[in-house]
Amino acid sequence: MVKLAEWMGKGIFRKHGIPTPVGVVVRSAEEAEAATRTGRVPLPCVVKAQVLAGGRGKGGAVQFANTPAEAALATRSILALEFKGEKVREVLLEQKVSILREFYLSFALDRSLRMPILMASAQGGVEVESVPEEAILRIPIHPFVGLAGYERRQVIRLFGLSGPAAKSLDDLLDRAWGVFQSEDAELVEINPLGLVGSGVIALDAKVVIEDDAAFRHPEYSEVRDDRTPLEEIAREKGIAFVQLDGNIGVIANGAGLTMATLDVLAEFGGRPGVFLDLGGTDDPGKVTEAFLLMAKAMPRAVFLNIFGGVTRCDTVATGLVEAMKQVPASERFPLVARIRGNNEAEGVAILKSAGVTSLSDLKESVQATVRAAEVPVEAPRGTVA
Amino acid sequence: MSVLVDADTRVVVQGITGHQGTVHTRQMKLFGTRVVAGTTPGKGGTEVEGVPVYDSVREAVGATGANASCIFVPAPFARDAYLEAVDAGIRTSVIVTEHIPFHDMLSMYHYGLSRGSRIIGPNCPGIASPGKAKVGIIPNVVFRPGRVGVISRSGTLTYEIVSGIKEHGLGQSTCVGLGGDPVIGTSFVDALPWFEKDSDTDVIVLVGEIGGTAEEDAAQAIRSQVTKPVVAYVAGRSAPPGKRMGHAGAIIARGKGTAESKVAALRAAGATVATFPYEIPELVATQLKALEHR
Fold first, then answer.
1. What are the start-end ranges of the H helices in B140-257?
2. Closest by alpha carbon to A262, among B257, B159, B279, B240?
3. With 50 as the cut, is the pLDDT of residue B247 above it?
4. A354 pLDDT exceeds 60?
5. Any idea what DSSP says for residue A353?
6. What is the pLDDT of residue B155?
7. Residue B64 Ramachandran class (φ > 0 left, ψ -120 to 50 alpha, else beta)
8. Is B20 an interface residue toward A (CB < 8 Å)?
């Protein structure tokens, strides 16, 4: 998923005609000073760290400024922050508005209903998890019909708005639904949605774009994410790679088998340090790259658990044998292999010729892996099975 | 009887000239499936694995009487491929393709629903009934005809479990992999009643995983609609809490979606829940024995 920072989300909102406070994103104190001095951002203004984590108000990541000098100072101090592990690279300066009321609004997917769902609450500006269930209005939206007028009126009634404010909310709801659909979003959240004067305005923006729709949205390809460097390399190669804090590496194919393998490993006292889901592949080169990546994570032992459907066992074996030739001596690890499914006999034979035995029992394989990881690190690292 | 596919199933493979389409056409035929046609726009008039290729699904259906489709076309074109199948009168489509945007799936699902067409998948291994037909990519070697019905959200884990059932000397009636995407055409709730009605199925194996509320919904369906014994497994008990979806996603579920919640719901509905995948065959065997003594 591509989580967009607030300023990018608000950019999308403006493109779709959703009102937001006048604002400018800056990357230095000098830019902040200039933006406020020239009136591009009217004073007084709010200075907000552009990080993805919530709870910015309490952590010093949101400050206020009355003069260009104060704006520069606030920007400098926020840029020096590391907020919940995330380095602040951008700061949003926004005109301060006087808020009469705050509401909550979001569009997301309801997997059980297989429909988008609109959620609204008259209690905005707080974490929505803390809002009681009965205070949240949920409206499933049929994708062929969209958000109907009577459904928008339910939200208007919930918020207790009338006159121009009601009309402005009616319009905003329609536009926000448009953002959810046309931007291929998995989440569009406005919290808080503010009543300012006689209209509603998006005071925050949380927009998450679906990864699988990336081919329709090249404009989001540069959005940074919170991955480790190895995770980033894996992503580029189309390998699902997640680093944890244990010492055993697991290479499997398919999310379900990967999770089940981790479950069994945990049961027998193993601590997974990296797991890597090969997915479906018919390219031995991808398997080789996966192994080389695994070696970089320096696991104490690796368990390869493959059941070939789309993936053929001989493809995996060929890729693995090639990787064994390429892994530098300093990065070698003990390996336990279990490959089954399509072309199993061919795969097992290829592994055997390289000195690796493929085990068939899951429990035994996991126990062998846990034992291998317990061998003191000073001992020579080689391939075992 | 079997579920959704049988010896009369006539399959058209959409995207048959691609690598996966070709490989799995051969495997489906080896399984005994009647693969009667393939489609790839622009490749009409050729043959793949002895199967005639047509430019459109409508032509394929007209010439061969195909009544089910297996879709291998790349994600950006999958929506179009499915709509084409529905409009050509296909009533069951297995979509193997992964990475289809869920917004596309929403319109595919609701369009199919309005036309009486059923999607299995996407991002799924498909459906197979040993001795009858297979539509999808589950390896042929894991099957053996028998009395165990399998419904799973996973791909490779399904193979692992189905294979374990065979190695235990048991066999399967029908096995269906529903796919792991956020929006799937057929859920546990849809599939459970089919297996309940299926005279070839004695015990149902349900393979779930963490995330979403599909297993909690399934538990509800087991309680109200299923009398046959259910053996369940939920993968991901030890998985670290992943990168969480936004707040809104979290509140849809409200405390559901964890392995604990799913296991508890399934147990409360009367299912036997395995802690590890390799325990399933023994638990199934126990249930089958209990049925014999009834």
1. 156-167, 188-197, 214-225, 247-253
2. B240
3. no
4. yes
5. H
6. 87
7. alpha
8. yes
**Cis status, amide bond into B193, omega within 30 of 0:** no
Quote the CA–CA distance of A283 and B174 in Å, as a whole number: 31
Burial of B8 (0-12, 13-18, 19+ CB in 10 A): exposed
Instruction: Give B-chain residues touching A105 at CB under 8 angstroms.
Output: none
Which residue of chain B comes nearest to A238, CA vs CA? B99
User: Smallest Cα–Cα separation from A49: which of A104, A2, A99, A5?
Assistant: A5
CA distance A348 to A340: 8
With residues binned 3-state (H G I as helix, E B as strand, rest as coil), the percentages for chain B, rounded to 5, are 40, 20, 35
Residue of A nearest to B253 (CA): A110
pLDDT of amino acid A236: 77
Using DSSP's 3-state secondary structure scheme, residue B233 falls into strand
Predicted pLDDT at A382: 45
Calculate Rg over the CA atoms of chain B: 19
Question: Taking CB atoms and an 8 Å limit, are A264 and B277 in contact across chains?
Answer: yes
Domains located in chain B, CATH noted = 10-120 (3.40.50.720), 126-292 (3.40.50.261)
> Percentage of chain A with pLDDT > 90?
63
- A385 pLDDT higher than 60: no
> Are the beta carbons of B249 and A253 separated by less than 8 Å?
no
The one catalytic residue in B24, B110, B168, B247 is B247
Domains located in chain A, CATH noted: 22-95 (3.30.1490.20), 101-220 (3.30.470.20), 229-374 (3.40.50.261)
Query: Strand (E) positions, chain A?
Result: 2-4, 23-26, 45-49, 62-65, 82-83, 86-87, 91-95, 101-110, 115-121, 137-140, 185-196, 199-202, 206-209, 240-243, 248-252, 272-277, 301-308, 335-341
Most confident of A53-62, A269-278, B64-73: B64-73
Q: What is the dihedral of CA A144, A149, A155, A157, to 10 degrees?
A: -160
- Between B259 and A384, the more confident residue is B259
pLDDT beyond 80 at A251: yes
Question: Greatest CA span in chain A, whole angstroms?
Answer: 80
- Does the beta carbon of B246 lie under 8 angstroms from any beta carbon of chain A? yes
Q: Does B193 score more than 70 pLDDT?
A: yes
Report ipTM (2 d.p.).
0.90
Q: Which of B28, B103, B143, B183 to mutate to test the interface with A (most CBs of A within 10 A)?
A: B103
What does the block give as tokens for A46? 């709010």
- In the predicted model, is pLDDT for residue A309 greater than 90? no
Token pair for A366: 């996991």
Q: Residue A46: exposed, middle, or buried by beta-carbon count in 10 A (0-12, 13-18, 19+)?
A: buried
**Å from A66 to nearest chain B CA?**
33
CB atoms within 10 A of CB A265: 25
Which residue reads 């879709």 in tokens? B71
